[in-house]
């Protein structure tokens, strides 16, 4: 299961971003190029495990987009992209994003109270992004049916669980200066 994802992850180079060991992978960086069979494998798997009784698939610019878009094409469910720039439209919601290596602002447009969304992103690490996003959606009265991350690392999951959000992580990895190791695969027990 998820053979292409696992095989490609263990080949990922690791660089330093400050103190943070940052892995580089097609799904989370678009570097090197993205093999469409990899995206196919991942979106097929997400379609099987996610609650897709939703109005829209919600992802965060930039690197959630390839997988979320593949899922949208497969299922016919619309795609909503949380952007890193404002549009100043009525109802736009602004939130602060913090990762292990960056800080920024995200902007939600196109959602209203009562909407049901599944969140699909490429990586969860510190949980800073998903935590801020889930809080903002809860404040808007948007229902989150599921949170899916292709790759998980670090202790962000614990913070998310405290908020009542339990993401489904396809592959959990450990990242060190030596490289990437697979720790867990969703559904393998
Ligand atoms: O759990 P966290 O520590 O918050 O890290 C996860 C976030 O980091 C990446 O986004 P990034 O802001 O680097 O943007 P990108 O998708 O444009 O690379 C990734 O797409 C997640 O959204
Ligand atoms: N590509 C990539 N994206 C991330 N998002 C959060 N952590 C990481 C990381 O180590 N690599």
UniProtKB/TrEMBL annotation:
Record's protein name: Hypoxanthine/guanine phosphoribosyltransferase
Organism of origin: Methanosarcina siciliae T4/M
Residues in Phosphoribosyltransferase domain copies: 38-160
Free-text function comment from the UniProt entry: Catalyzes a salvage reaction resulting in the formation of IMP that is energically less costly than de novo synthesis.
Entries under CDD domains matching the protein: PRTases_typeI
Reactions performed catalytically: IMP + diphosphate = hypoxanthine + 5-phospho-alpha-D-ribose 1-diphosphate; GMP + diphosphate = guanine + 5-phospho-alpha-D-ribose 1-diphosphate
Pfam families named among the record's database cross-references: Pribosyltran (PF00156)
An MF annotation (GO) of this entry: hypoxanthine phosphoribosyltransferase activity
Location relative to the cell: Cytoplasm
NCBIfam families xrefs: HPT_Archaea, PRK02304.1-4
Organism placement in taxonomy: Archaea, Methanobacteriati, Methanobacteriota, Stenosarchaea group, Methanomicrobia
GN (gene name): hpt
């Amino acid at each position: 299961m998820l053979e292409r994802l696992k095989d490609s992850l263990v080949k990922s180079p690791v660089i330093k971003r400050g103190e943070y060991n940052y892995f580089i992978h097609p799904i989370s960086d678009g570097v090197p190029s993205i093999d469409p069979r990899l995206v196919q494998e991942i979106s097929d798997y997400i379609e099987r495990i996610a609650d897709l009784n939703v109005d829209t698939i919600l992802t965060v610019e930039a690197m959630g987009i390839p997988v979320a878009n593949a899922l949208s094409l497969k299922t016919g469910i619309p795609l909503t992209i949380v952007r890193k720039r404002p549009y100043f439209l009525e109802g736009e919601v602004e939130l602060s994003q913090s990762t292990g290596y960056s800080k920024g602002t995200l902007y939600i447009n196109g959602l209203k109270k009562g909407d049901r969304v599944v969140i699909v992103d490429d990586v969860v690490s510190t949980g800073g992004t998903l935590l801020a996003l889930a809080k903002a959606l809860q404040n808007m009265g948007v229902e989150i049916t599921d949170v899916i991350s292709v790759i998980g690392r670090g202790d962000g999951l614990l913070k998310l669980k405290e908020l009542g959000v339990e993401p489904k992580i396809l592959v959990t990895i450990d990242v060190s200066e030596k490289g990437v190791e697979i720790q867990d695969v969703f559904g393998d027990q």
